[in-house]
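## tool: complex_structure
## caller: assistant
## args:
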Amino acid sequence: MSISAHDIRNIAECDAAHLPGLLLRSQHLANGVLLGEHGRRRPGSGDDFWQYRPLYDGESHRMIDWRQSARGDDHFVRQHELKNAQTAQLWVDQSASMRFTGHAGRTTKSDRTRVIALALSILLLRKGERVGLSDGTLAPRRGAQQVQHLSDRLEVDDIQDYAAPAIGALKPNARVVFISDFMAPIEPVTTAVGRATDRNATGVLLQVLDPIELQFPFSGRTIFESLGGKLRHESLKASDLKADYVERIETRCSALRDLCQRTGWQYHRHMTDRAAQSALLWLYHALGDGTQRS
Amino acid sequence: MSLTFLTPWLLSALLGLPVLWLLLRAVPPTPIRRFFPGVILLLGLRDKTQISDRTPWWLLLIRMLALGLIILGLAGPLLNPQSTTIKRSDLLILLDGGWAAARDWQAHQFLLDRVLNQAARDGRPVAIVRLTTPSTPVFQSAQSWQERLPGLAPTPWVPDASKMQTALQGLNDQPFDSLWLSDGLAQTGRAALLSALQNRGDVEVIETEQTLFALEPAKLSDGIITLHAIRLPNTVDQSVTIRAHGTDPNGRSQIISTITTAFTESATRIPVQFSLPAELRERVSRFDIVGQTSAAGVSLTGNSLLRREVALISEGADREGLELLSPLHFIAKAYAPSAELLSGDLTTLLPANPDLVVLADIAKLSTTEETALGQWVAEGGLLLRFAGPRLATSDLSRTTEHPLMPVRLRAGGRTVGGAMSWGAPKSLAAFAPNSPFFGLEIPNDVRVSAQVLAQPDPSLSQRVIAMLADGTPLVTRKQSGKGQIVLFHVTANAEWSSLPLSGLFVQMLERLSQSVAGSEPDMKSLQGTIWQPSQMLSAQGQLEPATRLAGIAAEKLFDAPLSAEIRPGLYTHAKEQVARNVIGPDSRLLPAIWPNGTNLRGLSDRLETPLGGWCLILALLILLVDVLATLSLSGRLVSTVAVLCLLATLSSTGPACAQDDGAEARTPATNGNAGAAVSEKAWQASSELTLAYVVTGNSKVDAISKAGLDGLSQTLFARTSVEPAAPVGLDLERDMLMFYPLLYWPITADQPTPSSKAYRKLNAFLKSGGMIVFDTRDGDIAGFGTSSPNSLRLQKITYGIDIPALEPMPQDHVLTRAFYLLQDFPGRYTQRDIWVEAAPQAVEKAAGMPFRNLNDGVSPVIIGGNDWAAAWAVDAQGKQMFPIGRNASDSRQRELAYRFGINLVMHVLTGNYKSDQVHVPALLDRLGQ
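## result:
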């Protein structure tokens, strides 16, 4: 994970407060979304006032709201807003390929992925949803404590070159978020999305790519290696490969988009040279369709 | 422009380049490893072409170019190679070598060096002949000439016709080629010498293209110095700057005046006029042209700009109206062209220190005058006396020789050739060789009809320097100290002889006054004199002391052409100094004209330039470009540049960090809190008037000092317009002193001596007008200067301070009246002795004035022992801290102490303006006198 000077300071401050830097940045990100979308409203405990209704016969007197009832002759019952908590389950690609950045000044894909995932989690948790990981390492729970657990889990690097979505602990009816570069073969993704859909879960695919990975600005005699070093490919004239490569990556993207359209999921491609905010906003809205039911 | 190669066969290597082209094309560039997550998508992709990416053609071209340049460079290309066709073995090099070549002498030497190099390579014998000192050419190996090359210097004269002739005669008949380095000035013998050389072989002439300026000798007329600048014929407008050099009154060389003028159109001779005050004019020793480093650009003046001061003394008063009979008329006429004439009486003229005093028929001088005149003569003056009726009738030098007369005189004198005498008027005898007049021609019509006669003395014959035909002395001379006394035994007018009417009289006076310095003497009066060279002019126009040069007869010195014997420079004879300049009056500079067909070229063109080095450097640069291009092709350029930058940054920041550390270690006091405190203090002190005391380290004393200055500040605030801020204590080692006008320094016996740095600060403080009040605080037990512990400490402390001479405060010191009128300066004690800077010795109290008129500066130190701070001290409630005296006297003494303190501050702040006479009437009034 690349760390800039500003982050180092953040991390240092957070170490003192036993908060990882990732968490802090994610909270900043989440606060930004919250303020921009909902004004000054703070997340409450979930027991928002909904309406007063007259006391029906046979109801317990304990239900009477005496303060309101004292104003008149009738008895009123105070009703709260009905709330159904949703479950969101994330899968975040931690493999070696995510630790790539095409430019020293740019954040790595895994760094961006983690920040977005955690920020999303914070937003959801604040709304009272349950958030967990789909691979079963962290069961969905609600509450601020879960943020800490999530950030701990998201710090772990995987030594695999590429990874496929793990949905071992997927809950029925959950909202699923897969964040990855989706460089690995697409079949496991298709399988995972299919199985999730079988369980009546809907979700989103967020593909995080470095601009280099779309442009392929290479030429000359080049040996390409994967980040883990397990794969390599030698080209005598890299510029010749560009057209083929670009075609392949675009094919991959459109395949993912097709998959989502078929299954009712949503797909988004995020480049690391754009602001993380844009991806978070998209994610929030995409999930909001399911969670913000009035 | 032509190009040859030293080793042309190396060029055949160029044929190998096409082969190299093919070889380089075949080898692919090394692969670069890249991490790329998308590699999984690349798997299975095939390169479209099986041949690897070739090295681009332009990169190959760059490499070929570099290699080609290396081959070219090694082949040794030469631009403008010197012709190598040698017809005759021997080479004669002729140098004009005069002053005209001085400016470009380095170029000449460079050229000579190259020619000699070439000759050495070709194995040719070389002879070098300088035409200014012509000799028979001796052909030697070029190497031996090269060794002597640095010693070859131009001469301050040019080769004239006779020297050309000498050179021509020195040539032998064997054939040789010649190279003539000419300075481009016309000389009469050039053509003959050239044809003689052409008879013996090829002649190549290298001529300097230059613009020559020269200065003619300066002339003084009507107080204006006129000299002419000349140049080679030219139609371009050129401006020249002419400087007058001389010495300032301290004898240091300085530029007295500068004039910039211009040659316009085709002018070759322009006048330059310096109008200088007489005092400045007499200091001018030479003129030169800026940027013209040749002997001709310098015009020495010798003594020609000096004017003798001649004091003419006569009784005069009873003879007014008879101009031609005036005893001084002819002398004044004789000296007028060359000297400043002073007239008046002896007592007013002698202080002007004239060079010559003429006493015409004066017998009686007052004792004061005689003493002064005697002293003046002894110091080197020339006293010229003339006889006359008064001298003849007086008893002066009659029985004993008068100190101001060369001989004893017989009474009455004699008259010859008159109506009552037998003999005819006498003519002059020829001058003896030891006479200063030796060599002067005596006109036939000079007759002497009356004279005073000398008593025959043993010393008479030595003192006679001119006599009449009958052997009686006409002029006698006596040395007296450094000076001399000369007596003409006839009158200065035509009464006694016709001598003053003749030209001889002028020449005789001229000869006599040569011994006292003066203007350029004319030729006739110089005949037979020998002049010693004192300073010689070099070809570059520098004055050098003359060593081992023989004296020159006057005739040759001014007429003969310059040569090794007669060099330009300054010559002296007796006290006279004349200058022989390179350029005489009314000279012309003309360019040399070479006959048609002469192989003539300039000094600067056609340089043989080896290009091999440049080829190799260019190849290296191209290889560098190749490295960069290769790096950029393989994508490593950015990282390489980054690494290089990083290395550069590391290497430059390393020492910088060390310096920072050093700086921090050196000045810990200026950083952090201490530094802030110091600057805060300085800020306070510089924004308001602040009294300061020296922190002694003894807390009790320091507290008293602070309280004392507090009390004084409050009193000042209440009574005067001085409104000081709260006093501060100063640590001499750390604090800046310059902001404080007054430093109160109580002395304790155990006080440490300040460091040398603190002493430096203290001395700077005193120099910039600060005042230190030393208080030994022991006025109760010790007088000042006794060996009380505090006094001893004071002596030790003040050892390093620059304190002027001191005196006990006089009654009329400014401190006694700077604000209050005071005579006592009590503090806690009432000791009288207070020491201040001593007043100058010479100042006397004027009559009727109560004090002397002393307008010196503020006394830098005041030393006393009355413990003033204790008397001034007040506590926080404003109460006096210490009792002084008893009861009623307490308040009186304290009041006086405060008054002293106020006077002190006033003295420091206002200086000595109370000393000003303006205030005297008011002060007198207040004093009740």
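## assistant note: The first strand of chain B starts at residue 3 and ends at 5. Residues 654-672 of chain B have pLDDT under 50 and may be disordered. Handing back to user.
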